[in-house]
Amino acid sequence: MNAASLPVPQESELYARIAAMVPDMDAERARSVLTAHDVRLTSPLPARRELRVRRLYCEGTKEGTEGNDGPFTIDIPLGSGPWVIASRNNSAGKSSLLWALSFALRGEGLKDFRRAETEGWFSYVRADVEVAGVAASIRLTFDKPARPRAELLTADTIDQLLALDGREEDGPGVRRAASAGPDGVGELIDRFMLDRLGLRPVHVWKAKAGAPKDADGNRDSAEQVHRWSSFSYAITLNSGHDTNLLGPTHWGQLPARLLQIFLDVPYASELTRLTAEEKKEGQEGRHLQRRAKEDALARTAQTEPLREALNQAKERLTRLEAGQPDLTGLLADADAAAQRVARNQATHQQAEEQLAIAHKARLKDARNSRRSRQSMAARLLLGALDPEACPRCDREIGDKRRAQEDSEHRCAVCAHQLPELEEDPEAQAAAMQRLVDRENASRTAEDQARGAVQAAGSVLEASRAAHDQAQHRLTAARSGDWYATLEAARREVYQIEGALAVATGTHAELPAAVGDFVSAENTAATGQVEDPDMFVLAAATKVLKQVVAEHSRALFKELNEEIVRIARKLGVTNLTSVSLDLSGRVNAKKSGAPRKFEDFSPTERLRMRIAAVVGMITIGRKHGIMSHPGLLLIDAPTAEELVPGDARLVLETLYETAATVPGMQIVITSIEEALWEIFPSDRIVTGPENRQLF
User: Fold this and answer.
1) Could you give the count of Cα atoms lying within 13 Å of 533 in the half-sphere of its Cβ?
2) Binning pLDDT at 50, 70 and 90, where does residue 595 land?
3) Cβ-count burial of 524 within 10 angstroms (0-12 exposed, 13-18 middle, 19+ buried)?
């Protein structure tokens, strides 16, 4: 099946294929997973990438030459077709002009075109270009060598830009689109070219230098994102000494990725992004497993500190849980504490009242004893009767009546003279004993009442302290910080328990609440990771690889034939066949024998690159697409030519290709004598007497 007849699956079909490969997955969910990883499978549209240089203008000052120092200005009109920057001398400025043009087109000069002694000569570079139908003028002002400021002008037509003289920036239809300082020039040109040419970055995965392999043979790697500066190697070709077919590196099969993109292989860019994302996720999973294993080993060696930390965490949690603030309960506790304070205050007050009564009774009994000892006449009577009031009218008997009874022997009740009685010593002693017993009893009662007051006071103080604590707990709970502290303490306990369980292998003894934590640690440590995203990424990678591989093989088959045909015309002798593979290898044969690309001579490698890029352009035109911008900048394609006549053949082939392939522009440099016969004078950029260009 040829490339033209291969169907291109639509995005809905791709999502359906991916979902079918993942259990319990549907197309919309697969789309969501891929979108979350910044992978979007949009149906490809035919590419139309055009890049034409219409003018190169440079200013500067030459220094350090032999009699040719001074300011220079060079203004070169260009267009589609073949162009040669020529001189009959070496060191005439040909490569330097190509370097200046590459700087404007790439945002940085191509090192293969760079000449160290001339880099500092340039003070101003202007390139007027058409990029996918948009007219633009890229202006670089060099305040320091290779460190320019940039201005990007646009206009309605390229003619409006071409009408501006030298550094002039104002004219009909001309607009300033953007500007950048020295650190932003590359980014500005990158963004402009990628956007206008419809190119998406290529993502490749490269192992880190010196990174050790794990048990499965995997090395830690890093994602590399290739943007316009890498794409531009299909325009400003690698030098003959470079062993990469295309691009700055062979890592991540970048040469094959560039071929696929410039052949407009559907979903080629998306596959690079998807592959990088899958590898990134896989590496992160391996890192998680490795870290978990390392952590497990560390925990095994540190179980005692873990146990100590666990005990401390549990004690802290216990203290927090013991004082867990439940506002309803705390309010009830505070209310109950207040009620206890009130009850204890009442009890204390009653005890004080009882103490006052007992104290009064004790004083009274003591006074009676004292009187009985002082009034022998009244002793027996008082022993039998000591009324507080008149038994008939209840009038209280005052101290005056009692004093009279003691001193004048008058009855304290009726005030009559007491009879003279002869006291019975035994009766007197018995009466006196009764008074003493009563006094002792009242004293004991007073002591008991005083003890009750003290006890009630202690209970009251304790209840007041409990009430203060209840109020404090209620206030602390209302502060809002306690629950966060409790949850943090619980998490700390769970984590330490889980870590200790993983370290000691005692998973079965763990509380259920710790299960999720330990399960996650165990899974990571044993490598049993089941991430649904990984299944979707793997399925998507497999589906897109199949699509990209089918279309690549079909297009590569056509490209192989073109490379052989063009390379032979360019003088690569005895080239039998080329078989590009999906890793970017050329797999060439010369005289029927395999030949590695790096084993070709530098001249042959450059011509094989030219053949590959020209082949991509012709195949694209054949299929009605412009997947390659159509521009080639080649420095000295015959510089190392050793076979007589091959230089002419190369120049004729390049001229014929650029002149006949629609929408193609080739700018080369050369000092070959044959160029003056092959290229018309209006296609030759040279200096006075065909020597110094500036």
Assistant:
1) 17
2) very high
3) buried
User: Whats the size of the chain, residue-wise?
Assistant: 694
* C-beta contacts of 228-231 below 8 A and 24+ residues apart: 228/106, 228/107, 228/189, 228/190, 228/193, 228/194, 228/199, 229/106, 229/107, 229/108, 229/186, 229/190, 230/202, 230/254, 230/258, 231/193, 231/194, 231/197, 231/199, 231/202, 231/258, 231/261
Q: SS3 breakdown of the chain: % helix, strand, coil, rounded to 5? A: 55, 15, 30
For 215, 224, 278, the CA distances from 212, given in Å and listed in that order, are 10, 19, 21
Structural contact between residues 251 and 224, judged by C-beta atoms closer than 8 angstroms? yes
Higher pLDDT, 38 or 173: 173
pLDDT tens figures, 56-69:
999 999 988 887 88
pLDDT tens readout for residues 234-255: 999 888 888 889 988 888 888 9
User: What confidence tens digit (pLDDT) does each residue in 488-527 have?
Assistant: 888 888 888 877 777 666 654 555 544 444 444 444 444 4
List, in sequence order, every residue forming a beta bridge with 137; answer none if it has no partner.
128, 153
Tokens 């997955």 belong to 25
Percent of the chain with pLDDT over 90: 37
Buried b (16+ CB within 10 A) or exposed e, 381-397: bbbeebeeeeeeeeeeb
User: Two tokens at 167?
Assistant: 């550094």
Burial pattern 616-649, b for ≥16 Cβ within 10 A else e, equals bbbbbbebebbbbbbbbbbbbbbbebeeeebbbb
Pick the residue with more confidence: 219 or 123?
123
613/611 Cα distance (integer angstroms): 6
Residue type for 156, please?
D
pTM, whole model, 2 decimals?
Answer: 0.65
| DSSP 8-state code for residue 387 | -
Distance CA 578, CA 39 (A): 34
* Encoded amino acid at 326, one letter: D
* CA gyration radius, the chain: 53
Q: The tokens of 178 are what?
A: 């953007």
Distances (CA, A) of 511 to 151, 206, 324, 514, 563: 67, 44, 21, 6, 70
d(CA 293, CA 502): 10
The mean pLDDT of the chain is 84
| H/E run at residue 159 | helix 158-162
pLDDT tens digits, residue range 354-376?
888 888 888 888 887 777 765 55
Question: Rounded to whole angstroms, how far apart are CA atoms 104 and 57?
Answer: 11
pLDDT at 315: 86
Nearest of 246, 249, 274, 248 to residue 260 by alpha carbon: 246
- Specify the amino acid at residue 211: A
pLDDT at residue 297 greater than cutoff 70: no
Instruction: Give the integer Cα–Cα distance in Å for 258 and 245.
Output: 10
**By C-alpha distance, which of 231, 113, 126 is closest to 669?**
113
